[in-house]
């Protein structure tokens, strides 16, 4: 750990000395915005703090683990327009900054994306420091007349596995900065496991829900709860409150044949969602498989069992006449060894695969609607 | 950092309690092998310790930074045959276990690959603990008669950014374990930067040199030195000692137009290599580009300048009649934003891209030889 601390210190000193050189900054605190500005939330202004993912009232209905994880800012982002040369963010975190198989940049870091005048995404970079008090300085030194004059739309993705306590964005006085209101498109809502929450992306922008949001240019709500995405009725109840464009149920890696009745959980979840929102497409996602299926017979048989039960649920729902229900099978996900960090969590390559598969299916569904 | 320590403790306790259950283990220490067993070294038995990458005599000829980095075990691996149900490794490290943008699994972790009876790679997984004293327990619970009877070939990839002090591999008494000698194929030798050393792969197997080794099933020597791959004559001199199958010079991300004469360094490096080994193909690799080229004009112009100088060097060498010299251009590398962790280091997706591009070029070269 020494090296991290040393590097933090160096970056901190660099930051300090840099901060002294620059002109006065105007800082903006999203918590003080007059209108909701945190994208990726289904219940804006009902959260206990603006960096949580679930409404405060959900606490008593959920298991403690789910509630705790819902405080982590996976899938949340802040949209704004600016023409600044440097976009600075200072923020405080409440949790651990890294995990053994996921770097600080993914667990606790930020990721900034902007749009070119042709609508393509670009990703500024600069200096950063991730610790209990963290900061990024994104450099946007572009010699593009339209940017200098009009700025562009930015999206700042928040940490995947940490709780944001406080955050401010700063630009130099001479540039403009304008927070953007939430988009009004009905969101895609993804309920899932650690994979959905973002483990083990190397940075927030590489979590599959965030990649999907950029690919489709469509809002995505991340309801991924590490180790705790279990198709629970209480969470499904909350989902029915969301006037969604698509529901994704991607919980199988957190289900256990010995404990959970996957068939029943899936059937009841879909019936509940369809009961309230019959027209909203629902995607049932199979277990992606373990990378060590070949050398771990338990994992192999577990995957087979879970996916068989999900298949039965899908068939039963179709037989009962439910429409717009889709099954994303293990083969569709197409995971290979190079897409995993350990035996279950995607690396960035796997995250891109996940997002690409979802993008294709969702575009197909939308084209047919 | 608290979470890492807590997790380490839990894994440690799990490890201890697990260790008590299992039967007696027989441990093998590669340092005590009667024949060289560390693959990925060009100078076996000339290293100060068997986990270094350069011969001891090189210390006085190299800058201190290069020498220090050469002690890190990037690209090194241990090959063995076994039919064990569990393959345990305990090891001690000398350096920091993680970096802000690269997890402990990549910096300091291990990666085990085996071969199916059809010659395909598989990757066992299990439990692990990475700290100053680290351990992995790879589970190989396969119900394959040929494995139980004959075992198979394994390759254990060592940490990318740490120095191994001590390592032992253990299997239970009832299984066999046999270290494999070094392969006699002439190696592919890659001299480069942090990207070549393996930053920021999520695990050792995803460093591009290690992916390339598996793809081609051919030995690759990793001479990547983080921040210090500068096409230096002293290092090129060492390379000429290696009877290589291909030389790769991939140093541009560590060159600086203000300090380094890329044209001259590249021309002299190739002349030196060709002077000693005229028939060995040499690949000159361009700068892959920064992911923030668009928002950082300095980075953009730096890449253009470096690549232009390398292109001139390539043209000059061709004009002088040198053959089997190849230029891998920025466009060939084909990097896009989703392949980067920060603005220069590949994530696993980028590492796979890098390896795939090299694989194709090297197969093309070999097909023409």
UniProtKB/TrEMBL annotation, chains A, B:
Do you know which Gene3D superfamilies this protein is assigned to? Galactose-binding domain-like, SGNH hydrolase
Which GO molecular function annotations are given, in alphabetical order? hydrolase activity, acting on ester bonds
Key words, A-Z? Signal
InterPro entries (UniProt xref): GxDLY, SGNH_hydro, SGNH_hydro_sf
Signal sequence segment: 1-19
List, alphabetically, the SUPFAM superfamilies matched: SGNH hydrolase
Would the keyword Signal be found if you checked this record's keyword annotation?
A: yes
Q: Does the keyword Signal apply?
A: yes
| SGNH hydrolase-type esterase N-terminal domain ranges (all copies) | 25-174
Name the source's superkingdom: Bacteria
SGNH hydrolase-type esterase domain segment(s): 185-363
Q: What is this protein called?
A: N-terminus of Esterase_SGNH_hydro-type
Where is the organism placed in the taxonomic lineage, from the top?
Bacteria, Pseudomonadati, Bacteroidota, Flavobacteriia, Flavobacteriales
């Amino acid at each position: 750990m020494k090296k991290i601390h040393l590097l933090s210190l160096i970056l901190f000193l660099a930051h300090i000395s840099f901060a002294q050189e620059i002109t006065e900054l105007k800082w903006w605190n999203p918590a003080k915005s007059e209108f909701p500005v945190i994208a990726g939330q289904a219940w804006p202004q009902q959260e206990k703090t603006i960096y949580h993912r679930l409404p405060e009232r959900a606490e008593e209905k959920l298991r403690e683990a789910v509630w705790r994880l819902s405080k982590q800012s996976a899938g949340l982002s802040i949209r704004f327009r600016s023409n600044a040369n440097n976009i600075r963010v200072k923020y405080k975190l409440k949790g651990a900054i890294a995990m053994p198989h996921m770097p600080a940049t993914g667990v606790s870091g930020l990721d900034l994306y902007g749009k070119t005048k042709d609508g393509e995404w670009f990703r500024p970079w600069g200096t950063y420091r991730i610790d209990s008090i963290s900061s990024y300085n994104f450099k946007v030194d572009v010699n593009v007349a339209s940017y200098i004059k009009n700025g562009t739309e930015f999206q700042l993705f928040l940490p995947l596995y940490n709780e944001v306590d406080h955050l401010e964005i700063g630009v130099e006085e001479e540039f403009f900065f304008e927070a953007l209101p939430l988009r009004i498109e009905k969101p895609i809502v993804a309920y899932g496991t650690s994979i959905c929450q973002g483990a083990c992306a190397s940075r927030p922008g590489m979590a599959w829900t965030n990649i999907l949001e950029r690919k489709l240019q469509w809002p995505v709500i991340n309801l991924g709860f590490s180790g705790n995405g279990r198709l629970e009725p209480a969470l499904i109840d909350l989902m029915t409150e969301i006037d969604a464009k698509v529901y994704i149920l991607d919980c199988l890696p957190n289900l256990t044949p010995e404990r959970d009745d996957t068939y029943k959980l899936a059937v009841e979840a879909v019936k509940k969602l369809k009961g309230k929102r019959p027209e909203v497409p629902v995607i049932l996602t199979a277990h992606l498989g373990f990378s060590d299926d070949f050398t771990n017979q338990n994992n192999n048989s577990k995957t087979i069992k879970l996916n068989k039960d999900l298949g039965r649920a899908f068939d039963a729902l179709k037989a009962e006449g439910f429409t717009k229900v889709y099954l994303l099978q293990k083969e569709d996900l197409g995971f290979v060894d190079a897409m995993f960090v350990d035996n279950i969590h995607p690396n960035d390559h796997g995250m891109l695969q996940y997002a690409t598969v979802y993008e294709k299916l969702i575009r197909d569904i939308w084209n047919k609607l």
